[in-house]
Description:
The structure is a single chain. The protein is of the alpha/beta class. It folds into 2 domains: 194 residues, 2-enoyl-CoA Hydratase, Chain A, domain 1 (Alpha-Beta Complex), CATH 3.90.226.10; 47 residues, Orthogonal Bundle (Lyase 2-enoyl-coa Hydratase, Chain  A, domain 2), CATH 1.10.12.10. It has 11 helices and 10 strands. The strands form 2 sheets. A 6-stranded mixed sheet has the order 1-2-3-5-7-10, sandwiched between helices. The chain has a 4-stranded mixed sheet with strand order 4-6-8-9. Helix 1 links the parallel strand 2 and strand 3. Helix 3 runs parallel beside helix 4, helix 5 packs across helix 6 and helix 9 runs antiparallel to helix 10. It is globular. 38% of the residues are buried.
Amino acid sequence: MKDYKTIIVTVSEGIAVVKINRPEALNALNGDVLDDLADAFGFIAKADEVKGAIITGEGRSFVAGADIAAMSKMGMIDGRDFTLKGQAVMSLVENIEKPVVAAVNGFALGGGCELAMSCDVRFASEKAKFGQPEVNLGIIPGFGGTQRLQRLVGKGMAKYLIYSAEIIDAAEAMRIGLVEKVFPPDELLSEATAWLQQVLNKAPIAVRMAKVSINNGANMDVKSAISFETEASTVAFASEDRVEGMVAFVEKRQASFKNK
């Protein structure tokens, strides 16, 4: 596996664990981190040996936000370019056709919250904190946060959190739908791994088509989304996995999927 400057990537039993590794800066996102994440997820998207991924952080932070020290030196054009780079990375993570879990071990603020939201599901440590505090700095969430947050928690709650810059704990994040599960800190990564491994034991083409259908349908009207779902369902129905899954069900045995 390639050595990166700002992240650590390990692959075991089909799962890539991507750990942001700038603990001295609370894993803040700068250009180098975004470049490393883009490269790593490009690899994950294409590598046959990788079936799913987990993103987490080193130390007491998941990602405490974008690197404000670096951003403070940017002009308008540089700031726009940085925003576009961040958006591209979040979209890459979101749209990779493999399941991605955020294991939020600590602060997930600003760009860190946006990175977590780009994942399929979010598991959090009891010590995790979430927020979009950008208005305190004279900016707005620019890595897709204004859009993904409202899709997860609703327009009103998204406005409440973004306007107020309030930081919330893991329990509140789960209550409003920003987080799916909360675990004790020492169980977070193992629980995320166990859940993802369970998903990887399902029919892989079906999981992939479900993700594609959900992600694309979220940006369509209902009629168009259901039409898209029909095509995704047809792809799954045409697979060997569908035949094996249904035959195994009828024969009352565990399915053995080939396309893992």
